[in-house]
Amino acid sequence: MSPPMSGVKDLMKVSGLPQLFFWSMLGRLNVSALPIALSLMLVRWSGSYVVVGLVGCALTLGQAAAGPLRGRAADRGSTGRLLLITGVGYTAGLALIVALAARAPASGWPVVVAVALVTGLSAVPVSQISRAVWPRIVGSELTPALYTAEATASEVVTTTGPLLASLVIAVAGPYWAVGVTALLTLVSTLVFAAALRRVGLGGEPLPQRVERLAQRSLLAEGPFVRVVVISMLLTAAIFAVNLSVVAWTQNIGRPALAGVLTACWTAGSLAGGFALSTFARGLPRALRVAGMAAGMAALAVLLPPVLGTVPLWLIVVVLFLGGTALAPTLAATYEQVAEASPEDRRAEAFGWVATATAGGGALSAALTGVLLDAYGPALPVAAGAALVAAALVLTVYGRTPSAEPVEEVTA
Question: Where does the Major facilitator superfamily (MFS) profile domain lie (predicted)?
Fold first, then answer.
């Protein structure tokens, strides 16, 4: 057992972790970069936003359906082999979509939808594999700090992806943007797999772990289901706020502000994640979730129809302050997932979480649209705050016991 460590500096000292962390983040860049590039490419090809929506839906459904299966495959076999197969499959699927959009007539859109579904099934499980192995790499002492660092870095990736796609689109067009995204995914996945092997985590699992996988479904475990529901509620709330902010800027005739306001929320999340990992690592999970709920509630009060006109600077301040709880809250959910699942089934566990959050995001997007049309932006944001409040209740009254002791890998 390594000596007690704390904070970002101590994470940097763990052998092989900085490189592994970097490539795991780069391997997720496609999640935020692809939507804008793929949407622009498809609308230029088909001239129809219906086609864009169908292809995007098929891609998301494939990703959501395969999440637990990919996680279980990672738990049962070689993560390196799984990353290679999915990386090649996902890249080939995107390349085929580009080729069809470049050469096939627009009437061939059903084929593109089918290819998108298969491509989604091949989505690379970098995020769930990395979240599953973090506790084994750093041990229980540093696991909370590492999950906080991941949640914070994920905000950077979420912001950087669209910027990268927009840059490539401006220089070479949307077809190239999709191609660059696919290539970047393949390269980062392969390097991530190699980095896993260097720390001793890219090969076959121990035989006894494969035998233990005959256990009943994780969804039969109450503590785990509770954490999955918490993750789904939080994701739905985040979607509600993002869409409502965009709608508000459209309503006031200043759509360009949407990116600025979203960036303020992200900046607050980055600040909150840095502060938590550096100064306040012991902050209770319930307080983090409560802070997120309070931030959303405060924002709801400032938006129409509750208030008709408010200074822009006040919206910016509330978004930033509310955002400070975002990364710490997400980090808390990662910790809860790790605690609620056996070590040899954590990749599967994070796969179920990915499926639940994808479903929560899709449902939230649909309901938020209805609420925005009927009542304006205040109500969907308030609904988001209510969802986080429900997550708070589950957090407070459903504490999750640790599934088993954390093993530590010394590199």
Answer: 16-401
